[in-house]
Amino acid sequence: MKELVRPARLAPGARVAVVAPSGPVPEERLQAGLDVLRGWDLDPVAGPHVLDRHGEFGYLAGTDADRAADLQNAWCDPAVDAVLCARGGYGVQRMVDLLDWEAMRAAGPKVFVGFSDITVLHEAFATRLGLATLHGPMAAGIDFVKNARAQEHLRATLFAPETVRTIASGGTPLVTGRARGVTLGGCLSLLAAERGTPHARASASGGLLCLEDVGEETYRLDRYFTQLLRAGWFDGVRGVLLGSWESCGDYAEVRPLLADRLGALGVPVVEDFGFGHCAGALTIPFGVAAELDAGTATLTLDQPALR
Questions:
Q1: pTM of the complete model
Q2: Band of the pLDDT at 86, cuts 50, 70, 90?
Q3: Residue 31 pLDDT > 90, yes or no?
Q4: Which residues of 44-80 are buried (b: 16+ CB within 10 A; e: fewer)?
Q5: What band does 122 get if pLDDT is binned at 50, 70 and 90?
Q6: Which residues are catalytically annotated?
Q7: What whole-number distance in Å separates Cα of residue 288 and Cα of residue 286?
Q8: Residue 139 and residue 30 in contact, taking contact as beta carbons nearer than 8 Å
């Protein structure tokens, strides 16, 4: 697994586009998120369809074509320096293949931020554009709007990435050791759902794999892990960082499953690393070379996440 192209850091006055590739966005939270971005001396602009709701499927933020158009137009606009997702939910898999990846590649690298259902776009940006991305809070998310730690870690990553080259999680080792690799990952259920789709990554070989999920019962998590294991997707992975398992049942049941499914990999594993669907979620760059120290629960990037 190779390092990916790192986009340029943001500067005061940079224009950032906010789009909704997945689920519908509450207007009051969007406005609150835009106010946060303005407070960072950024120039946020919301996509034309960011507040849409699909006429038949209310869990989608507008039609597949409109959601794809908002993302593509923002990405291809030379005045836009970064694209931030408003929220997750569900819907990226329905629109990702409507994007003109050649046009987006020609537009050059930009900052891209999101998590949860946005995992599908993190994978697509990696495999189709060769671009490093940021797994972090979304502009209309409660964490982004209300949590100081989530805000400040993302802000530091965007403006002064050299100050957060070492990400200290406060987590604990599930399997001790150190490992080097290139970061990747996201929502476990989405990574499993991507198997067999066009341009899906063949495996996590050579990677430091970041995993988390929300609202999945323990047996469903077991299913996703087992599917990926049977498919050989974990073969060659260098280390694993486990984020939050919010609303996934009693962690007293989840933790033994994590140990059972991941312990036999023979690589360092850290739990409770503080990213994903949790309060104060840390921003984790994907596509960058780093070292995981399970003993200290730290991830140290070889270079800042952004140039």
A1: 0.97
A2: very high
A3: yes
A4: bbbbebbbbebeeeeebbbbbebbbbbbbebbeeeeb
A5: very high
A6: 116, 212, 277
A7: 6
A8: yes
